[in-house]
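Private note to self, pasted from the team thread so I don't lose it. Backbone tokens:
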């Protein structure tokens, strides 16, 4: 989910630039102790608010001082600025394995001991390797195949894509009650998550991974079929609060609140929406529940995201901190507090509170096949960020396909061609 840019890519958004500039000199200190004199291990993280507080709680068990810098959503812009200034942190937490590969290629990272890959599924750790060497270790997972809803607004949860389309069509045409869908389309990664879940269902084995490797195959039928299905749903009359234009101004967290307060019936969001769902309910309404992303062509998707820790080149203390974070009990405080999933197979699922977290952890660990967020795996200029890359392409697709009188087939073909061109520019195979 965290964006990344290549050299020569469009400038980051004003919001991201201001955040990176401001946070370069402002740090959030871990409870384990800290020092600005250089004695503390410094770690840059994308988290803020409650997630940042929970990470501080995790660090209280570390035996040495740690300085935590909250770099915000665009940690890539922050790290690039710190690299140019010669003040890179010891450790960074990255939500994009594509950035791990890119930084390793640039010699910005120190390789890690291979035993740090042992607690994780091989398909997870392989995403953090370059030229056979390990450059990152996973510290957090995200379950990206969930819908949130209020049972008072949805009589029967959709099991198939056809069920979902029928529900949105019926509620949108009713003209009363909650609007069927909330969507935080102002955050382009929300739209890529939709595409990835549909694509994993309709694409043959290996196709999804080929796209993630940068191969320019976006004009092939699995992509155009996926875009066509999304166009059919998103263009339904009355689908969104305030219409599609309003949806393009809605942030992901606001979209969750639109459901928990009863204004919308459904929102597709990952497990980390749990904190917002719990905190922003409307008095008198029941708590939000979840259901899995509906099956498409008889296949139910499971798309995961995650955050990985890397050591910046030149650090002498970074691997020690990562070794602690990879420990099976390091994140116990966050597990107990809720809103956290561990990709570490050594974390027993009975340590999670009963309910959603434990259920998702069991499903994640037992799944024979899972896919990692495609846009997070992309490298270079194709990777997403505010207003650029694949995020921008999907936002343009959403805007165009929901416009009154849109030729949806033409929009689908144009979007597929744009994605293919972007993949080529980013260094995909000819």
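Design output:
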């Amino acid at each position: 989910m965290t964006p990344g840019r290549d050299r020569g890519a469009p400038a980051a958004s004003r919001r991201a630039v201001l955040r990176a500039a401001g946070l370069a000199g402002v740090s959030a200190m871990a409870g384990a102790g800290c020092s600005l004199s250089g004695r503390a291990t410094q770690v840059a993280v994308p988290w803020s608010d409650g997630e940042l507080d929970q990470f501080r709680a995790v660090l209280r068990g570390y035996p040495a001082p740690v300085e935590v810098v909250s770099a915000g959503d665009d940690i890539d812009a922050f790290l690039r600025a710190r690299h140019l200034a010669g003040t890179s942190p010891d450790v960074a937490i990255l939500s994009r394995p594509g950035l791990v590969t890119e930084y390793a290629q640039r010699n910005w990272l120190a390789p890690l001991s291979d035993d740090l890959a042992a607690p994780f599924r091989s398909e997870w750790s392989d995403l953090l390797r370059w030229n056979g060497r390990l450059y990152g270790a996973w510290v957090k997972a995200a379950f990206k195949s969930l819908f949130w809803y209020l049972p008072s607004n949805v009589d029967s949860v959709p099991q198939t894509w056809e069920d979902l389309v029928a529900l949105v069509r019926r509620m949108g045409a009713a003209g009363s009650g909650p609007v069927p869908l909330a969507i935080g389309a102002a955050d382009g990664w929300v739209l890529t998550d939709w595409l990835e879940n549909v694509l994993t269902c309709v694409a043959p084995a290996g196709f999804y991974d080929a796209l993630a490797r940068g191969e320019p195959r976006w004009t092939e039928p699995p992509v155009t079929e996926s875009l066509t299905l999304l166009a059919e749903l998103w263009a339904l009359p009355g689908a969104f609060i305030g219409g599609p234009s309003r949806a393009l101004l809605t942030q992901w967290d606001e979209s969750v609140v639109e459901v928990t307060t009863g204004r919308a019936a459904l929102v597709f969001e990952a497990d980390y929406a749990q904190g917002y769902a719990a905190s922003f309910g409307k008095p008198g309404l029941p708590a939000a529940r979840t259901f899995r992303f509906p099956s498409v062509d008889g296949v139910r998707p499971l798309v995961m995201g995650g955050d990985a820790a890397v050591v910046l080149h030149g650090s002498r203390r970074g691997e020690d901190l990562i070794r602690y974070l990879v420990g099976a009990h390091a994140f116990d405080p966050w597990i107990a507090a809720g809103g956290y999933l561990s990709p570490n197979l050594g974390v027993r699922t009975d340590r999670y509170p009963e309910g959603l977290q434990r259920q998702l952890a069991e499903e994640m660990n037992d799944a024979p096949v899972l896919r990692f967020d495609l846009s997070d795996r992309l490298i270079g200029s194709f990777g997403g960020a505010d207003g650029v890359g694949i995020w921008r392409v999907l936002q343009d697709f959403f805007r165009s396909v929901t416009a009154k009188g849109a030729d949806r087939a033409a929009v689908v073909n144009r979007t597929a061609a744009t994605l293919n061109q972007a993949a080529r520019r980013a260094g995909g195979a000819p």
